[in-house]
Design a protein that fits this description.
alpha+beta; about 240 residues
């Protein structure tokens, strides 16, 4: 699928996702109340046009459990077995690494507004996030393997979401050099170090194309990480769900 086709496919299930969210919320609240191991996940699955989607609720800590500050995300996976022969290197996004493997389309109901302005609530259609196969491959090589962790793919998705913390939209522009028409670079710093490098393609779609471990940082990236995580703590203490 092209980028446009992938993002359109994800937006098509927005209403179904919201309906499922509303229908299971009472059940989720009850299950989280009884849970005592963190992070605690509750998973629901549904099928749409042959694609398997997962709606996942996550509670990271006892503090979040007490506040009922549950984080949720809905995603489906897709496969890239090999690069199409009829596409030029410029048309292959980050083609130098040939993104063979499995990626994820994740629907964020709050959209980019939530991250760019630090406000809570739903603002319009939301945003679709593409975490590419290359990003998962690098996450495995640079984070999971050094820690001796062998996870199934869905567990990798949940691991990333559990460590997902706060964004940096300033940074350098090196993340734009393979893709035209990018609005901004967009890096997510992770709890415990490392970051997903991404791009804002437009106000309803974005892509994360690689994972960078802390030992690979250069320039002022470590300082940027410390600053963005401090900002995360400030927002967290203002009781805004993130």
């Amino acid at each position: 699928m092209t980028d446009k086709e992938k993002f359109n496919e994800a937006f098509r299930i927005v209403d179904k996702t919201k309906n499922l969210f509303d229908n299971v919320l009472e059940d989720v609240t009850d299950k989280f109340r009884r849970g005592n191991r963190f992070p605690y996940f509750i998973r629901y699955t549904f099928e749409d046009h042959g694609n398997n989607w997962r709606l996942v609720f996550m509670c990271r800590s006892k503090e979040q459990k007490k506040k009922k500050a549950f984080f949720s995300f809905c995603y489906t996976s897709y496969n890239i077995e090999k690069s199409p022969k009829n596409m030029s290197p410029k048309e292959l996004k980050h083609g130098k690494d040939i993104n063979c493997g499995k990626g994820v389309l994740w629907f964020d109901p709050n959209g980019l507004w939530h991250y760019l302005h630090g406000s809570s609530g739903n603002h319009g259609l939301g945003c679709v996030v593409d975490i590419t196969p290359h990003a998962f491959n690098r996450y495995t090589e640079r984070y999971l393997k050094p820690k001796g962790l062998q996870l199934e793919f869905d567990q990798k998705v949940e691991s990333i979401m559990n460590r997902w913390r706060w964004c940096d939209i300033v940074g350098d522009k090196s993340s734009q050099k393979y893709t035209k028409n990018v609005l901004s670079s967009y890096d997510i710093f992770m709890q415990g170090g490392g970051m997903l490098r991404g791009q804002i393609l437009n106000m309803t779609s974005m892509r994360f194309f690689t994972y960078v471990s802390e030992d690979m940082y250069y320039s002022n990236q470590l300082e940027r990480q410390e600053e963005t995580l401090r900002e995360y703590q400030k927002v967290k203490h203002r009781k805004v769900n993130v």
